[in-house]
Amino acid sequence: MTRRPMVGGNWKMHLDAAAATALATDVAGGIGADSLVDVAVFPPTPYLHLVAEIARGAALQVGGQDASGETQGAYTGQTAASMLFDVGCSWALVGHSERRHGLGEDDALASRKVRAALDAGLRVLLCVGETLEEREAGRTFPTVCGQFEHSLHGIQTADLERIDIAYEPVWAIGTGRTAGPSEAQEVHAALRETVALLYDARSAERIRILYGGSVKPANAQALMACEDVDGALVGGASLESEPFLDIVRAAFPPEHS
User: Fold this and answer.
1) How far, in Å, CA of 233 to CA of 212, rounded?
2) What CA–CA distance (Å, rounded) separates 25 from 146?
3) Is the Cβ–Cβ distance between 11 and 251 less than 8 Å?
4) What is the pLDDT, as a whole number, of residue 252?
5) 255 band by pLDDT with thresholds 50, 70 and 90
6) Does pTM top 0.85 for this prediction?
7) Is the separation of the CB atoms in 99 and 145 below 8 Å?
8) Mean pLDDT, all residues of the chain
9) What amino acid positions are annotated as catalytic residues?
10) DSSP letter string, 22-69
11) Could you report how far apart the first and last alpha carbons of the chain are, in Å?
């Protein structure tokens, strides 16, 4: 089975309406109406509707940077997955390290968010990753594979059709440090083995595992050439169209690169 590559751009809490509009326009124009790679951007919530309108008719997908684990109610400041779907999103990020480690969100909350996003009709990009302390203590594999398992508590095999994974080592996000291709590959392979153990071989072969953590045009091709690296979740380099599109081009299948 050949997995279609994916590149996502997480804009985090950057840009204003004019800059978001301009960036989305440039990215949508750069990939056109058809693409060899699935391309998604994750703008700040206030600009989702603007970006979704620009993406309409292009091969650009749009997602929320987070989704509530609740469907509706008195949850000030949260955004329901159904609201993301309503404004044109097709994706939700869940479990990003800046929520896990910055805001103390645990796997149990991540699992509720996954369920809510799927029920609302969204695809899920589930983020997992270890801290520097966990890596130095030799706990990389149990940490990331445990996050995957517990964040998908109660998720059935059929649900995996709309779930992909982003491995983002916390120590490489925004630091300029990057896991080398061999380091990324061994963690991605371990995650794929975990999917096979918890679900089945077909699901393990199908699921995409993206790498995130200071991905740039200079290192993207080497990372995505690894057998089990199926694309990239890009942070800072997604805030300008040309570097981001260079990373998209680096994800093209070899016969088209």
Assistant:
1) 5
2) 39
3) no
4) 87
5) low
6) yes
7) no
8) 95
9) 96, 168
10) HHHHHHHHHHTT--SSEEEEE--GGGHHHHHHHHTTTTEEEEES---S
11) 20
How far is C-alpha 140 from the chain's CA centre?
19
- 3-class SS of residue 201: helix
Do β-strands 38-42 and 6-10 pair in parallel, antiparallel, or remain unpaired? parallel
Please choose, from the candidates 98, 191, 99, the residue with its C-alpha nearest in 3D space to the C-alpha of residue 141. Answer: 191
Which residues lie across from 231 on neighbouring strands?
6
Q: Delimit the domains of the chain by residue range.
A: 6-256
Whether 137 shows a pLDDT value over 70: the answer reads yes
Question: In this structure, are residues 97 and 168 in contact, taking their beta carbons and an 8 Å threshold?
Answer: yes
Give a three-class secondary structure readout of 129-183. Answer: CCCHHHHHCCCHHHHHHHHHHHHCCCCCHHHHHHEEEEECCHHHCCCCCCCCHHH
For the chain, the helix, strand and coil percentages under 3-state DSSP, each to the nearest 5: 50, 15, 35
Superfamily of domain 6-256: Aldolase class I (3.20.20.70)
Rounded Cα distance, 139 and 64, in Å? 30
Mean of pLDDT values over 48-77: 97
- Collect all residues with Cβ–Cβ distance below 8 Å to 160 and sequence separation of at least 6: 195, 199, 203, 206, 207
C-alpha to C-alpha distance for 160 and 135, rounded to whole angstroms: 27
Q: Give the tens place of pLDDT for each residue, 163-201.
A: 999 999 998 877 777 789 999 999 999 999 999 999 999
d(CA 49, CA 256): 33
Amino acid present at 57: G
